[in-house]
Amino acid sequence: MRLAILQTRSPEGDLEAALDQIEQALKASGAARVDALVVPEVFLPGYNLADPAAQALADGAPALRRLSAAAAAQGTALVLGYAERQEDRVFNSALCLGPDGREAARYRKVQLYGSREQAIYTPGDRYVTFPLAGRKAALLICYDIEFAPHVAALASMGTEVILVPTANMAPFSHVVRHTVPAMAANHGLAIAYANYCGSERDLTYVGGSLVVGPHGEVLAQAGDHPALLIADVPERDPARISTQAGDFRPLRA
Q1: Is 103 assigned a catalytic role?
Q2: Mind listing the pLDDT tens digit for each residue in 73-114?
Q3: d(C-alpha 119, C-alpha 111), whole Å
Q4: Residue 136 annotated to the active site
């Protein structure tokens, strides 16, 4: 499996600029025969806008149709973080458009971070898995990946790769340095983690987007500037898969 990650600055509500940037990244990914491109959390319209719900997208929105066509034109799946509107509710969502441009999966963030997200979004209530390039894939969003029970649950379902749009900000650089690789190693699955860089209003993002293999090996990682990462994800080596799930001995408190 070949994965790409777009690390970039927030479009800050400029929908046309955001769509242009995704299309350019899809063209580069298609030329490199990438299976899936992952972009950051709430990239449409921008994570830290004063009111992202005002630009939330409903099913069939022109922006989503345009990206569907772009993914199909390149034969590359796209994992998009966006604010999703469903009637009177707004979700912090990740949408996977397959290489044919059709919706392959949609996930709504379960672990909303802080009072701001909790005031804007309705939390999701289920996992989603789907086939991608011959592997079983799943979606999580930002804070979700920091909760071992969520990763363990997906691993127990046979998930081989988790695709993660994120908006990880300072001072939480330990997430890209340590948490994500540890989650991959402990649960025997690959993780593609697509973050922002630069600043947006009162947030400074830590960058550090990365693709981690199923044994915790960092296959590609960005610094703190815009980048398009491309990495090949190897098959799991059964001899190196953690046996924690079977070995765990719970104790009574």
Answers
A1: no
A2: 999 999 999 999 999 999 999 999 999 999 999 999 999 999
A3: 13
A4: no
